[in-house]
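Dear colleagues,

As part of the handover before I leave the project, I'm documenting each prediction I ran so the next person doesn't have to rerun anything. This entry is a single chain, and its sequence is reproduced below.
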Amino acid sequence: MRNAQVLRERHWVCARRISERRRDLGLTQCDVVERLAALGVEATNRTLSAIEHGQGVDIGRLPELAGALDRPVTSLLGLTVEPL
């Protein structure tokens, strides 16, 4: 049971960091979708909204999402401290 709790918390940390980083950059969800498209990743506002609301981070998109938000993957996953 404890492992399930840890996994859920990691999932929410990632969702929260993605949302916070987008807002810190002053980007809309549309802006991030456009950045992802420039990196060759198809996504929609609905997809990004679902990710930010904890409804699933697609691990296959995480490297490009990190690139679009100018953060390392480890930062979005909560494995490193957020830079100032």
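The chain has a mean pLDDT of 90. Residues 2-24 form the longest helix (23 residues).

All the best with the project,
I.
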